[in-house]
Specification:
The chain is α+β, with helices and mostly antiparallel strands. It has helices spanning 19-27, 30-35, 51-64, 93-106, 175-180; strands spanning 67-71, 85-89, 125-126, 135-141, 146-150, 159-163, 168-172, 182-186.
Length: 190
Amino acid sequence: MRQRFLRRICNARFRFEDYQTFHVRLLSSVRFQRQFSQSTVSNILMPKLPSSFVELLQTVTQQQASGYWELRKNADAFDNFFEAEISEFFDNEDKIIRETDDLTKDFPPDACYGEPSEWENEPGFIPDIIDFSEIICFAIAGDGAPFCFDSRDNSEMPSIIYWEDAYWRRVAPNFEAFMDLFIYVERKSE
């Protein structure tokens, strides 16, 4: 559907100083400067990255080049049918900021997106997101669909959402439950 969601090759190196520095950089990104030009930083409720995500990034850099994460079973954390794999975790702050900023461009309200959906009875359905200010994109699936932290309901423990081809879907209540769904698989050498 969207051409930028093609499978990507993983070759980045981990450059996170710490997640607090990341939040300062995220707040200074172009999208936040544009969106909150009338606000002060202290008035912005920015979601925190879970510490378990930051810890995971310290181990995935070497793995990403040689493998991927597949579901242990075809179910989300709420035991609804779900098929996906994690192709890449964004392991540096510039990539996370860029991919998060791109959500607004990739999902603009138009005659279809942002309107009532025929998918509202699907498992984990979330109405189309128009305001991405509390969403952070942290990974992509094998088909290029984004996995994101959603801090709109709980800034201390963001849930995990996923673009399910035609609608946003909540797949886990938190990052720990999300990672419990997956197992790391080495790519077979040819």
